[in-house]
Amino acid sequence: MNEVYEELHAALQQGAPVALATVAATRGSTPRRPGARMLVRPDGSFCGTIGGGCGEAEVRFEAMEALKDGRPRLVRVDLTNPIDGDDKICGGVMDVFIEPLLNGAPSSPAAPLV
Amino acid sequence: MTGDLAARIAGEVLAARREGPPVLVATVIAAPDGAAAPVGAKLLVRPDGSVQGALDGGLLDAAVRSEAADAFRRHGVDSLFFALDGARLTRQQAETQSSYQVMLEVHESPATLLIVGGGHIGKALAIIGNLCGFSVAVVDDRPEYADPERFPEADQVLCGDFVETLRSFPIDASTYVVCVTRGHRQDEVSLRQVVSSTAAYVGMIGSKRRVAAVLQHLIEDGADPEAVARVHTPIGLDIGAETPEEIAVAIMAEIILGRRAQGGGRPAGGSALAMRDVKRPRRPGVSPSERVPPADD
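ok -> structure tokens follow
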């Protein structure tokens, strides 16, 4: 098992809240392919990578938000706008799904965990 | 989705990644407000078609289940668009109407790269195979080569007679076998053990003459000619590899091509067919294996 899933396994066993970010789809040229994953803890520390740079910072921020409000969300990371930061040179768009796992289980709007 | 159900799905995912069988998890990642399937809803589909969880509990579940066989063949992660009645949509269509975006993830234990021979090429292959996410196993009959300290990137390092060790090694459809031993005698006895297995890939290094002789012996000894014909040789994509490390890259490239291109995968840079064509225009007499001394250690 890779590092992200080892960490996820440990978090589930300990009941520690973590958010799992997964690249669900890409268009154009992007640093990572669908299936790249990153695990984010409430303090913003993380393991794994979805490609680094500004896009990753954005996903980390959204993951921390998701851990606060308990809502899964889809983030479109747009790497096509050159004036938005000069390290976004890839030119593609990534759909990144972020899922908070509170107390060891994914939450959803249908049945929020208390 | 209740917390209990989510925990059960997470448990099955972790079990599948540890030791299989694989599972497919479909997750609604975008949905119209108030839709029957909310963002975060999950449906787990097993290879036998049985399920755990639900998306909308109806048409969307059925649509996703009909995509399962394809998804298992592609191995990785993909995302598909569906109308509220379950009809497949393109991304463009999805942008102009109420629709779901569903992420399909196949979770499975890493494929095994079984490296027969712990010499220079075996060493380079172990590193690259580990990098590419394979569970690496190395077999050699010499303790100084079948040494876990020589192969920190391998999950298993087996020291023993090639025939005996390979006979007891569990080879299945997610096992990739590469024979890169120090000599044709070892290659031949090893290949004989694995040639008729269900391995996803069997490749053997060696010059054309040496390989042809080995394959001929196998057929004379009663091996299935079709199985013998499936042995990848000359081994690796023709990228003009010279060094053991470059040859390991060429072998891994061939393995990745077989794994990803099969069943509609889309290797970067072209169609699967175009990629396969790369291998054909081999310059005569310069296959990578022929430039390697017979003993690769």
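The CA atoms of residues 27 and 78 of chain A lie 10 Å apart.
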